[in-house]
Amino acid sequence: MIWAKEETLPREEIKAIQLAKLQQSVAYIYERVPSYRNRMDEAGVKPEQIRTLDDLRRLPFTYKADFKNNYPMGLFAVDKKELVRYHASSGTTGKPTVVGYTRKDLDVWLNNVARVACMGGATPEDVAQISFGYGTFTGALGLHGGLEKVGASVIPMSSGNTNKQIMFLQDMGVTLLVATPSYALHLGEEIRERGIDPAKDLQVHIGLFGGEGMTEPMRDEMHKVWGEDFLCTQNYGMSELCGPGVAGECDRLTGMHVNEDWFIPEIINPETEEVLPPGERGELVVTALGKEALPLIRYRTGDMTRLMYEPCPCGRTTCRMENISGRADDMLVIRGVNVFPGQIEEVLFKIEEIGPHYEILVERKNRLDVMTITVELVDDRLLDSYSQLSELEKRIKSGLKSQLGLATGIRLVAPHTLQRFEGKARRITDLRKDGL
Ligand code: DLL
Q1: What is the C-alpha to C-alpha distance for residues 245 and 298, in angstroms, rounded to an integer?
Q2: What's the 240 CA to ligand 1 centre distance in angstroms?
C-alpha cells in the first residue's frame, strides 16, 4: 500500500514542490531564527536569492553544535505556546538535543511515519507491538502515531521485560514488531530458547526496524531467527529532522525511500563540505521543509550513505538512500585506517559458529592502536576443543584482515556472555588517550 500520492510523482513535480517549500522555509527561518539569519547574512545570501534548487548550495549548513550552543530552544521558530510536543535525543555526553512540534508539525510527522510503515508492509489489519523505549526518544511515539494513522492496532509495550514481550506476542496475535534491529535479534533468540519457533508458533510476519542500522548479513540473521517469510525493513530518521519518517525501505529492499516532498537530501564530502554527484558516498545533509517549530536548513546528519535516483519497481519515484555505512564521527581510525563498525559486522555475521553480538575495544599499547573484538560462540561445546577454537579464531582474524586491511585481536566467549541492549546497541569502547 502506498500512503501518499507524493510518493509516486514524476521527478519534475517533486522538484517543483521542493523549490516552493524551500523558498517558503528559507524566508520563514530568516525572519524567525536569529542565529540562522546571522549565518545567512555572513554568507551574504538573502531568501529572495533562492530561485532554483541549485541555490540550496549557497545556504550555510546547520550543525549538531548549533543545538548545543542554543540549548534548549534557541533554534525554535515559534513561541512556546504554539508547541504541542517535545522530544529529546540522548547525547553521549552533556545535555540532550531538544526538539519541538506544533500541531501541524505533529500531523506532518506522523503522516510521514505512516508512509514509512506502509513501505514496510503495514496495513490496518496489523497488530503492532512497539518495543522501542517510550519516553523522550522519538522512535516509540513516532511509530506509535504513524501506525495508528495507518489503522493498525498498537500495543505500547516499550523496551525490556522480555517475558512480557513474549507473552504479548503470543497472546495478542501480534503481526508486526517495531524495535531496533539488535533488540529484535535478541528477542528472537530468547523466544527460540523457550522452545518457541517464531515462524510456526507466532503470527509476527513484519519487522519495522530503525534507530540504528541493519546490514544485509544482519537481515539474514534476522531471517534465521524469525523465519524465512519475515519481511524486515529498516527506516531512517533523527530527532532534529522530526524522528522516524524521513526514509524507509519498501518490500523490494532497494534502499530507503526518502520522503522528498518534506526533506531535501544532499551528499557531501565531510571534510571539504563539497556537494557530491548522485550515487557517490558521503555524509548525508538534509533540509527539512515546511516545519513550523524547528525549521532546519542543510543539517549535517553525520550519517554516511549514498543516494540512488533510479526508479524502484514498487512504483515510488522518490530517491532511495543506501544502508548507513557508519557515522562520519563513529568512524574509528586505527593505525591510520578508517574503520566503520558495519565493516566488522559484515565479516562476523558470515561466520556460522559465532552469534550476532559483539563488542569492539580500542586501546593504545606501546604507542600502537590495538583493536580487540569480543564475539560469542553459538555452541559452548566448542570451548572444550582448543584446536577448533584456534582454527575459528584464525578464520575470523583473516576475514577481518582482508576486509579492513588491519590485524585485530579476537576474544571468543561463551554464549550469552555479552551485554544485550534494549535500545540502541553500544558496541564500541575507545580507551585511547590523545598524545600517548
Ligand atoms: O533514532 C529516530 C528513529 C527512531 C529513526 C526509530 C527510525 C526509527 P535519534 O535518536 O535522534 O533518532 O538518532 C538519530 O540514529 O543520525 C543515525 O545515526 C541513527 N539511525 C537512525 N535510524 C537509522 C538507520 C532516531 N535506519 C541517529 N540506520 C541517526 C542507521 C540510523 N542509523
Answers
A1: 18
A2: 10
In the predicted structure, residue 436 carries a pLDDT above the cut 60? no
Rounded Cα distance, 105 and 290, in Å:
8
d(CA 429, CA 424): 15
Q: Nearest Cα to 179, choosing from 148, 208, 219?
A: 208
Contact between 321 and 256 (Cβ < 8 Å): yes
Grid cell listed for 139: 522512535
Q: Which triple of cell numbers denotes residue 58?
A: 549557497
User: What is the position in ligand 1's atom list of the atom closest to the CA of 301?
Assistant: 16
- Is the whole-model pTM more than 0.90? no
| CB-ligand 1 contact for 239 (6 Å cutoff) | yes
* Residue 46 CA, ligand 1 centroid: distance in Å: 32
**Cβ(236) to ligand 1 under 6 A?**
yes
Q: Residue 385: pLDDT band by 50, 70, 90 thresholds?
A: very high
**88-91, long-range: CB < 8 A, 24+ apart:** 88/136, 88/239, 89/136, 89/137, 89/138, 89/238, 89/239, 89/240, 90/136, 90/137
Looking at residue 93, what is its pLDDT? Answer: 44
